[in-house]
## 1
Amino acid sequence: MRRLVLILTAVAVAACLSGVVSAQEKQPTTVVLKGSPMGGVKFDHAKHSKMEGVKCDQCHHASKPEKALKAAHEACQDCHTKTAAAPMKTVTQGAFHTAMAKGGTCIDCHVKQNAAGKKAPTKCPECHKKENV
C-alpha cells in the first residue's frame, strides 16, 4: 500500500511539473521592430528580460477592456499600429518614445541606465538601422 501511495504521489508531482513547463511561453531571443522610416530596431529580448528591475508587464502591459489580450505577452505592434485604430490611441512610435525621443518607455530607461554608468543607446541611429528589416 505504501508503495502504491509513493507511485501515485510521484505521478501527481510529475503531472504538475509538466503542466508548469508547458504553460510557460517561449521567449524570443531577438525581435526586430519594423515600420520606422529610419530603419528597424533590433531588440535583444533575452538581454532585456534578464535585466534587474525589468518586469514583463512594463512592456507587455495590460490592455484596455475594449482591446482584450489574445495572449499573455503580445507583440507591441499587435496593438500599437503605425496609425492609431480605435480603441487604441497610442501609435507604434508613441509606445516606445515621444516624437523627438525625449521621453517614453524605451528612452527613459536608456537615459536612466546611462546615468547609472551603463552604456545604453540614446541617439536615433544607435537603435534604428536600415539593415534591420
Note: The first strand starts at residue 30 and ends at 33.
## 2
Amino acid sequence: MRMAISSALLGAMICAGACFAYRPVAVAPTAGSRVRIVLRSATAVAAFAAGREDVRRSYPGVLEASGRIEAAAGDTVAVRLGELRTAAGAVPDVADQVALLPAAEISRIEQRRFQAGTTLLAGVGLSALAFAAYVMLLVVVLTKAV
C-alpha cells in the first residue's frame, strides 16, 4: 500500500509540472509575467545580456519569443528570454538575454497560466494507473505464493 501511495504522489508531482498553457490576453501583462509573444512576420530582434547593454546581438527572422516581461513602452516590449524561435526552430544560447521586441510587429501576447483542472485529471489518471499496476503486482505475487 505504501508503494501505491508513493507512486501516486510521484505521478501527481510529474503531472503538476506539465499542466501549464499559454492563453491570449486582452491587455498587456505586467512585468514579471511569463509570456509567449507571436510576431506578425519574420522580424529582426535585438537582444543583449543582462548588465551588458553595450553588447547587442541581432537575431534575424524571429517569429516567436517566450520569457518574462521586463518592461513595456509604447513602441517596444522588453522580454527576458527563455527562447526565440525562427522558421528553422529555436535559436541557441539566448536564455536570460533581454530582447527588445517592436510593439508594431506583435501579433498577439499569450500569458502562461496554470491549469488546475488538467492537472487534477492527469494526477487522478496517473494515480489510478499506479494503483492498477500495484494491484496486478499483488495478484501475481499472491498467486505464485500459493
Note: Strands lie at 20-24, 34-49, 56-72, 76-86, 89-90, 97-102, 106-114.
## 3
Amino acid sequence: MKLKFICGLSALISCVPPAGAKGGNYANYIVRNVVQYGVASWYGGRNHGHLMACGEPFDEYSMVAAHPTLPLGTEVKVTNLRNGRSVVVRIMDRGPYIAGRAIDLSRAAANLLGFTLRGLAPVRIRVLSTPERPAGRPALRPRRHSFELAASGNERIAAK
C-alpha cells in the first residue's frame, strides 16, 4: 500500500512544472526581441567534453553558451559593453549558477568578445531566434516511469 502511494505521489509530482517555468516546458515558448543586461563569464577547460543540458558534448571552441532560463537552442547576440564587440551564440546548456551572472559563454565566444583574461564582462544579450515546437507535438509530455507495479503490488516490472 505504501509503495502504491509513493508511486502515485511521484507520478503526480512529475507532472508539476519546475519553479519559474510557465507551463513547465521552456521549449514551448517563442521568445523574440528580448534584451537582457548582465555580467557574462566563460567556461571551458575542465568542462570540455562533458555533456551539456542539450545532451551534446561541450566544445569550448564552439560558439555556445549557458543561460538559466532561455530555451535550449535559442540563438542570442551577446555584446561586450566595454569594447562593443559582439558574437552570436546558441544556448545549449544551463547556468551560470553564481548569483549576479547572466550568461556563461564558451572560451571561443569569450575570446572574440575580449574578456578571457579578465574573466567577466558587462554584456547585452539580445534574443535573435528560438527553436519552434514541431506541429502536432503536445506542449507537455508526461514522463515515462521506469517501472510499473505488478498486480500484487510488491514486485516491480520493467516498463516497455
Note: The beta strands are 35-43, 64-66, 75-80, 86-93, 101-106, 120-129, 147-149, 156-158.
